[in-house]
Each structure stands twice: as structure tokens, then as C-alpha cells.
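#lab-general

N.A. 3:47 PM
ok so I finally got the sequence cleaned up, no stray characters, all 411 residues accounted for. can someone with queue access submit it? mine expired

B.Y. 3:52 PM
send it over

N.A. 3:53 PM
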Amino acid sequence: MTQTVTIDDIRRAAGEIAGQVVRTPTVEARRLGELIGCELWLKLENLQFTGSFKDRGSLVKLLSLTAAERKRGVIAMSAGNHAQGVAYHAGRLGIPATIVMPVFAPFTKVSRTRALGAKVVLAGDTLDASAEAGREIAAREGLVWVHPYDDPLIVAGQGTIGLELMEDRPELDCVVVPIGGGGLIGGIATAVKAIRPETEMVGVEAELFPSMKQVLRGEQPRAGGTTLADGIAVKTPGRITREIVRALVADILLVSETELEAAVSALVELQKVVAEGAGAAGVAALLAQPERFRGRRVATVICGGNIDVRLLSGVLNRALVRDGRLVRLRVSIIDQPGQLAKLAQVIGETGGNIVEVVHQRLFADVPAKQADIDVIVETRNQEHVQEIIQGLKQGGFASRVLSTRSIDGGA
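B.Y. 4:20 PM
back already:
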């Protein structure tokens, strides 16, 4: 294979962007590491100004433009993070920027991109369709195309993360990196393997978008669906990047939507780190397959933190439900004064905290003198839920759990 990006390219890129992007920290994730059974380090690219690693490659590419190209302006296609990286640095450098985003791009990323001064065009229901629209606009208006991953300059920019990782933790046994188009892992793998060849590189894709894994197997990429990891929801990986991955990456793991949600939640709760779905993909793989990493010195890249706060709230609440720390109970009562107070007293005495109560009188299949009460209760864990159900039974209330994870309460 002819190497399209070298360690010298990455070192050159590091010199060019020094002082213009955040030199992000590599922090130990001790609590997560204990769960997995490894020594775990997190490279916090979510601390970049635009919230993702895309600041790096975008700047390297923009700095390479001629004066004439800068005057004409640039165009990029992105679901959000590349868009913000290009928009931010183009604005700093006085370069007009147009960003084509898919119609499903998170509102937070669209609004932030516009706030950075770029012209945003929403087109296409997939990244590939958005890319096609972007190339048409580029050709029509004479704009410079800034590809999100399949460009040696972009790859070199992302590779500066690998340089920093090796400076901070030169003894790493394994580096786990999310894969979308492959620019991030391509750059990091080039740097890491040049400095420490024995360090294993492992990629992670969303189960719904396993395009890099499929391409490397010689299969036609087949991907699609709604994923929490929209930042790596790429149907066609880069041609440059796939060859780098083929040469330098030992394995590609796939993670489910449930595993991605669990990782986002675990990062917030255990490490106080906010990551979007793509940014948490590496942690998702580690938590899903701890035996593969047990006893090793591992780093993963939290490549982005641009998650909509409403989505984050939903993810965290769903995690509470899965863990049995937020439960919805349906309780049958006699429809007369004092029953609701008695019900609340029983739940309170067992240590539960009621956060919502809804009467089901008209639309439930119950006798006229009875009612069903739906009660959302904060609890400690699954065992505590059982204690509350038992307390309700002793207090004369039949109850059952309506949460997504069924717990056998009974009457």
C-alpha cells in the first residue's frame, strides 16, 4: 500500500495548528476502568471550542488554501461536528463558508453552525445525499470542497490527537477509536503505530452503520437506521482512510444502540463527562466487551460532546429506568377519600420518592368504585423496587410495574 499520510505529515500539521486548537487532556477514568478491569484513559476532544475533534483537520485543510481559494470560499458536508469545525475556523480566517447538512442533523448542531457565521443548507436524508448536494453547489459556485474525512490533510490534522496521546501515555497497550468515515482513526493509527508499533488499534462502529467493517471484508456496505451515534453514521467510508485502517487497525467492534446509551450515561454519572453518541462509542465497546481489554492500559477518544440537552435528558432517564432507579407502578385503589394519601404514605415509608401521579378512572378496565393510579417513583435499585411492591401488598394495594424492564410485582 502507498501510504497517503505519514507521521511527518502529522507532525507538520501539529506545528501548523499549535495554539489555534485546544491541546486536550488525557485523563484517567478510574471508576470506568474498575468496571472494565483495565487501566483506562480518556482523550477529551469534547473540550475543543466547537465540542469535537473536527477542529483539527478542518484548520489544517483551511490553512493549505491559496489566497484565491480563500477568496472564493469553501463548502463542506456534515451532520454537525465537521460543519462547526469548518465554520469556526473559516470565520476566524475570513473565509466564506457554506455547510450542507442532512435534514436529520440535530437542531443544536445546525444552530451552532449558523451562529459561527456559515451559510447552512439542509439537503438530503442521508450523509451521502448531502454530499452529492454539496458537490453540486461547489461546482456551480466555484467553492473549495472540504471533505469531512477522505482528504490527507484532514487525516493528518486528526492524527495530531495520536501524537498527544503518545506524549501523555507512551506506554499504552491499546487505543480504541470511533469510526465513521475513518479520518479520525486513520490519523491516530498512523501516529500511534509510527511511535509505538506494538500498541493495538481498535475501531468501533455503530451496529446500524458497520460500513468500514463491511468494506474491509470485501462486502458492499449496507447500513441505515436511526442511531444515537449520528456523528459516525456513515454509509460509505473514505477510500484513503479504508486503506489506512486495513493496514494499521487490528479489529473493528460493533456497538448496539442500548450499549451507546449506556456509555453516554456511564460517562456522565461516573466520570462527569458529557459525550454525544459517537463520542461515547469507544466506551460502549469497552463496557460491552470488558474481557477483551481486561488487565491492559487502554485509551479511548471522547471525540465529541455535541449532544442535544433534551436527548441527553432522555438517555439519562432511560438509564435510570433500566437500572430500576426510576419506575412506573400501576396501583389499584378503592376510589374514595384518603386512599391516595395512604398510598403515598406506604411508598414514602419504604423509601421511594414519588415524582408523578396520574389517575386512570375513565380509560381503564376497572369497576366504577375503583381506580388505577400510575405512580412514577425514584428508587435506589431493582431490589428497592421489590421492597416497595411488597410494602404496597402488605398495605392492601395490588400493584405492577409498567417500566420498560419488567419486574414481577403482582398483587
